[in-house]
Amino acid sequence: MTTEVVSPSLIPTLPGHTYVSEDIFRAEQEHIFEEMWFCAVRTADLEKAGSFKTVQIGRESVLINRTRKGEVRAFYNICRHRGVKLCMEESGEANRSFQCPYHAWTYDLEGKLIAAPNLTKMPDIDRNEYGLVKVHVREYMGYVWVCLADEPPSFEEDVMGAIEERLGDLRAVDDYDIANLSLGRRIKYDVKANWKLIIENFMECYHCATIHPELTEVLPEFADGLAAQYFVGHGAEFGDDIKGFTIDGSEGLDRIPGVGDDQDRRYYAVTIKPNVFVNLVPDHVIIHRMFPLAADHTIVECDWLYLPSVVESGKDVSASVELFHRVNEQDFDACERCQPAMGSKIYAKGGVLVPSEHHIEAFHSWVTSKIADVPADS
Amino acid sequence: MTTEVVSPSLIPTLPGHTYVSEDIFRAEQEHIFEEMWFCAVRTADLEKAGSFKTVQIGRESVLINRTRKGEVRAFYNICRHRGVKLCMEESGEANRSFQCPYHAWTYDLEGKLIAAPNLTKMPDIDRNEYGLVKVHVREYMGYVWVCLADEPPSFEEDVMGAIEERLGDLRAVDDYDIANLSLGRRIKYDVKANWKLIIENFMECYHCATIHPELTEVLPEFADGLAAQYFVGHGAEFGDDIKGFTIDGSEGLDRIPGVGDDQDRRYYAVTIKPNVFVNLVPDHVIIHRMFPLAADHTIVECDWLYLPSVVESGKDVSASVELFHRVNEQDFDACERCQPAMGSKIYAKGGVLVPSEHHIEAFHSWVTSKIADVPADS
Amino acid sequence: MTTEVVSPSLIPTLPGHTYVSEDIFRAEQEHIFEEMWFCAVRTADLEKAGSFKTVQIGRESVLINRTRKGEVRAFYNICRHRGVKLCMEESGEANRSFQCPYHAWTYDLEGKLIAAPNLTKMPDIDRNEYGLVKVHVREYMGYVWVCLADEPPSFEEDVMGAIEERLGDLRAVDDYDIANLSLGRRIKYDVKANWKLIIENFMECYHCATIHPELTEVLPEFADGLAAQYFVGHGAEFGDDIKGFTIDGSEGLDRIPGVGDDQDRRYYAVTIKPNVFVNLVPDHVIIHRMFPLAADHTIVECDWLYLPSVVESGKDVSASVELFHRVNEQDFDACERCQPAMGSKIYAKGGVLVPSEHHIEAFHSWVTSKIADVPADS
């Protein structure tokens, strides 16, 4: 038995224990999900003043809401008094404030402490200092990104930079006008696998011929095993007889006006670490957001976005949704089937990457460097 | 973000991790529940010789029974031979002995080994030494208190002392004649929260106006946020138009004869660490016993006790039971809503106590001192 | 409270924590189940080329199959590429190969890598080196035994030696012709107890009078508490009015031809560490295989084997199966009732063994020595 890699065709993956260790996962929560910009909710889901969503980011519950001025704010979802979880629901509407159901400490939509029993008799309490603890917020591409770090990293480098690195420039965000598209469908997947397996899966197409018959029918070049993400700026071309990015190659929906002829009939995919996949086709955009909950458990929320006129008209988007929904199910099944072997002694040094997967090594190096920052005594 | 407490109105709670750490909980099991007097069962539940109950105390299952002489004994619920759990049921009737179902080692109701296959051929076995392992027992206020420590602490100081400290003297136990009351209702609550949150909740009334509308209707002074436990000897007075301690303020049951006029129309509450709450009103007594099972899981058993004549006559106690049953549900809901935030990084130093909660600090100091006894290497 | 053993009649068992500690269990997985010969599947269950079974051994999933040459091979059930669990089912039929469902790496029934997308473009990949990782295999007594150690211990000493040590010689395996018997019934038991409790239970008969009324009816000497395994070569004799090894002592099935008159009307039991019990009676053989899954969880698979002519004729084996099925249930109930007390502080030093159980001490010493091999830093 040897797992030494001696063939130039093959390079090693991460060691198996990095996919199962709860210690590694805790380090990833601390140094990746809780320190980076994390794509949390779709901006349009916060419809009006008081609309809120709660999301789990790393080990924290985060409360994101729209203020009366129409801005988006995010806070730790915890009352400052005795630690009650303020909002239990995944989404809802606050009227003018958030009131803790235990002792009625009350915060306005900006997070300021505005009322509490006997508060007037405790004038020394600074209502801002004892307001909800804020987290950093950015709106981009129609989504709210939050960062729990005290000093957030550069959004331009980390988020926008990932798009530029993959597509060559940021035009796509403008061309596909993502922020102004409408939600046609949302599906939530409960995946019993490590988040890194899901990213690795999205980054390579060596598996496409085996598990994605419908997708390779639409994108014949995928059958060769080279992912759309392999070459800067490259989008995989539709097959000759394919009319749209649909389960059966039938006509898609209305083309997004900004999509240029060079982008037409092509599929582009972008990975924005640590939790987002962007998929661009002429008539819609598919956004995956991952929510890693445990070393072997990840929730993936997937949005299918179309022109507002398409969604409002009630056009049938099923054939369009069905294609990537099936791809998702095929991919997540594969990831779930990897997970149980990660702890085996013969996978202690990991598996191997073939040449068309070698670019995943950059992801592995990145994860390793993030976790390497952990001081030995933490 | 800062959690430094600078306002004199506010003092800190225990750090958040003390409510979620299984290591802390293990230390609490070892140094609190397994070393202190623990209120286990109601004496009257052991009706006759051979009646037994089993209860979980710390990490141990304890078997409590009534002997043929009518006395109460308690043992580790474990056969001395190969470790079988002797009694699986929560309660039952042994005839004259406890027989292990595996190899038939048999113990009398005093715990002595009285029979076993081939025992006569093993004359060197001392039947007392290989009897059931005893735990210390005291009967008080109609309940059996047990202590798993080799050298129990002073029952007079710890248990009786808690009553004296709260009420000024031990008269209540005589006046309300608790040991001779009858059980009108028993409700068991399964609470997904740390036992300390439940004690803290019981000790303060700052939350009463927010979550206990029925209780504050009956006890108007509770709306101010000062708990009955705040002043030595004080009992909260019923509202003017309140006829009894019932869900709708209607007439209660027959007044306990020993209750003096100074105690009439008043509610007294006492916390006896580590697991008992006593609630006194003119016509009944409510006793809570907590059974902490995990850092985030506690069973609470609550007894409503009335004059034997009330229970025997079959009078309807529902309006009376309903009031504190609802209070229990409101309180335990609040505790369950605190639990998930205890592990948050912004709760690492804990929350804050307002002036009407400051007395809880004594409980925090007590817990801390109990756990501080743990040597670093244990 | 003392657990010092001062009576010569009594010797101590293993300490209680060895039955509950997940660290101890991990050491047992590593140094016992993953290093010894482990009885995995019945050879006849691999009917033809491509038939496979998967079994959990220690922390590993093992894939066992029959090759086109009719031989049995065993592998770690993991694709060498990215770690997918190759076969999810407990049993099935592969056609000519095992193909990974993720990227289609394909292995022949000998484990050799025979195909993969683009494999021809990666000529530096050695198809044997990247074949499935083999585990050692032996066929004996109609079962496939596997060993995950790089250097397996002596099968002759460990497996055959255990039979010789118990029965005096290996004749039984020939006399009862176990490899050529047919499966009459298989029952799988899910036992919530440590595997060592199950072995200890099988090794002694001090419990027989208490929990096995049917068995002691058939084997009267068991009522005295001496197990069949107590004396080398001894088989417990059927009672005078017993016609067969059946639930009601009624006639059994056809006697196995090789069984000699000295073996007739007798029951022999053999323990083959770490996971097999063999039970011999004139007309059938009962084989238990244990699969320890956690410190407190063990699967036991029990096979009742008869002459092929008996099974083929469709004769009713129920009265025969029912006897030991009931014994199994009685034993496993007892083991499950021991498990919860193993963590008690009064069982920290363990329980005691009476003289008719003293031979279990050898098993305890053996376990202790196996785990003692664990270096302090592992």
From TrEMBL, chains A, B, C:
What is the designated name of this protein?
Answer: Aromatic ring-hydroxylating dioxygenase subunit alpha
A single GO molecular-function term is: dioxygenase activity
Lineage, broadest ranks: Bacteria, Bacillati, Actinomycetota, Actinomycetes, Micrococcales
Q: What is its EC number?
A: 1.14.13.-
Q: Keyword annotations for this protein?
A: 2Fe-2S, Dioxygenase, Iron, Iron-sulfur, Metal-binding, Oxidoreductase
Q: Does the keyword Iron apply?
A: yes
Query: What cofactor is this protein dependent on?
Result: Fe cation
- Identify the residues that the record assigns to the Rieske domain, covering every copy: 37-146
User: What organism is listed for this UniProt entry?
Assistant: Arthrobacter ramosus
Main EC class the enzyme belongs to: oxidoreductase
